[in-house]
Amino acid sequence: MKRKTTALATVCAVLLGSGAAMAQSAGEYTLGVGFGNVNPKSNNGTLAGGATTIDDNTQLTLTAEYFIRDNLGIELLAATPFKHNITIAGVGTATTKHLPPTLSLQYHFANGKNITPFVGAGINYTTFFDEKTTLGNLKIEDSFGLAVNVGLDFKISDRGAIRANVRWMDIDSDVKLGGTKIGTTHIDPVVAGLSYVHRF
User: Fold this and answer.
1) 7-45 residue pLDDT tens
2) What is the CATH classification number for the domain harbouring 191?
3) What's the rounded Cα separation, in Å, for the pair 14 and 25?
4) Domain limits at 122?
5) Which of 72, 73, 103, 111 has its CA 20 to 30 A from that of 139?
6) Beta-ladder partners of 118
C-alpha cells in the first residue's frame, strides 16, 4: 500500500505543479505503443495455508483513445501476455500468464504548454491462462475490478508525445487446485508505463 500511495502521490504532485494543458479536440483519437511493468503488491494473500508472493513482469503495451468531448477521452489498454512466477510458502511454486484489458474514461488538462497531465478511471478485466505447476491442476479465475490512471504527455512534435503514466488495478482472483478452492490471491498491482503516443 505504501508503494502504491507513494507512486500515485508523486505523479499527482507533478500534475498539480504543471499548470493547465494542451487541448485534445472531440473526434480526435490517439494510438500509443510502449512498455508496462506490472508490479503486484507485496502481500498477495494465502493459498493452501501458505503466504503467497507474485513477481513483476514487463511487456509491450498498446493504447487507443477516442475523444468524445474536448479533452475527455475513452481509452482501451491492451498488452502482450504478462508472465508471473508465484511462490506459495511451504507449498511450492507456479507460473501463470495474464492479459489485463482496461477501459478508462480520461480527462486531459488543457494548457498551452508542452506537458499535458491526465487522470482516468475505469474497469479492468484480467484473464489468466497457461498456469503451470508440479502441484497439480491449477486454475486462477478471471477478475473484474477498478482501475485508475495518472500520467503526463511530453510533446515532441505537433502530433507526437512521450507518455509516462502510473496505473493501479484491483485484481483479486480465486485459485483452485484440482478443482478445489485453495484461497484468493490479491494482486492489486501498480503498473508503470512509458510509451509513444500519436494523435490523429
Assistant:
1) 544 544 444 444 333 568 899 999 999 999 999 998 899
2) 2.40.160.20
3) 24
4) 2-199
5) 103
6) 108, 151
